Amino acid sequence: MFVLAELKDTVRISPDQFNLKLLEAVRDEINRKLANKVLLNVGLCIALKDVVSLKDSFILPGDGASHTEVVFRYIVFRPPVGNVLTGKIRSCSHEGVHVTLGFFDDILIPPTALQHPSRFDETERAWVWEYPLDDGGKHDLFMDIGEPIKFRVSREIFEESSPIGPPKNEALQPGPSAQGCTSTAQQSNEARTPYKIIAAINESGLGVLSWWDQQQQAEETNNEEEAEENNVDYDNDENGEGAYEE
Questions:
Q1: Phi/psi of residue 115, each to 5°?
Q2: Which Gene3D superfamilies match (predicted)?
Q3: Which of 14, 61, 113, 178 shows the smallest number of beta carbons within 10 Å?
């Protein structure tokens, strides 16, 4: 789930940090710059592991800060495809089930990756697994908000979220329609997610944990009942002596 990524960057240390040791100032600046940020095709940065090397520092003309090329290793959240993780259901929508790990929320289980058959309950705003029963009926198992859920990572999506320049319709004369187009473009840019995980639960043992707890309890109850039925029966004979009959 967590990996070490070796990265290289030129770290700028402002003059007000010159009282610190260079390594300490570099560590603070790297964490300030990267912690809780997503790097394209790398993952979600968590914390600095260590600094591998520091090169000579230099000062650019017109800038009183020092600049140091640094090679370092950073702890990154990027679970491999196929990994099984446990999170909690954050919400449900027509897009699928949205899951959170507490520190990472952009996990989606699409409808095609849910147990089959499943349906979206508009009243409860939750997905429901129509669990088939032996008698041909079905039992509704709800995916409620806050429930722990086990899922498998099926794929990951990285998307560039940096500014891409003004919209093409910027040349339009100011007016309600032009302002509306600009507002829509801005909302589209703001809604872009830099790193998203697509997951699946359409396998045995995956899904809401309470489902399998209930199933395990039911199986244990059935096993106990079968064991009681298969026990040796004790029957008294005419002489009052006991005889065991299977």
A1: -60, 145
A2: Nucleic acid-binding proteins, RNA polymerase Rpb7-like, N-terminal domain
A3: 61
- How many helices (H) and strands (E) the chain has is answered by 3, 15
Extract the tokens encoding 135. Answer: 């008698």
Q: What is the CA radius of gyration of the chain?
A: 29
| Nearest residue to 155 (alpha-carbon basis) of 115, 118, 122, 200 | 200
Neighbouring residues of 104: CB distance < 8 A, sequence distance ≥ 6? 44, 77, 197
Fold for the domain defined by 2-77: Dna Ligase; domain 1 (3.30.1490)
Would you state the torsion angle of the CA atoms of residues 228, 233, 234, 236, taken in this order, to the nearest 10 degrees?
Answer: 140
CA distances for 126 relative to 122, 132, 140, 158, 187, angstroms: 7, 19, 11, 27, 27
- Do 83-160+192-219 and 2-77 fall under one CATH topology? no
* pLDDT one-digit tens code per residue, 175-229: 554 455 444 444 444 567 899 999 999 998 899 998 877 555 555 555 555 556 6
The set of residues, in sequence order, having a beta carbon less than 8 Å from that of 73 and lying 6+ positions away, is 4, 5, 6, 7, 48, 49, 50, 52
Cβ atoms of 30 and 22 closer than 8 Å: no
Report residue 137's pLDDT band, with 50, 70 and 90 as the boundaries. confident
Question: Token pair of 178, please?
Answer: 């032009």
Separation CA 42–CA 227 (nearest Å): 54
Domain locations in the chain as residue ranges: 2-77, 83-160+192-219
Q: Give the closest residue to 142 by CA, choosing from 232, 207, 58, 213.
A: 207
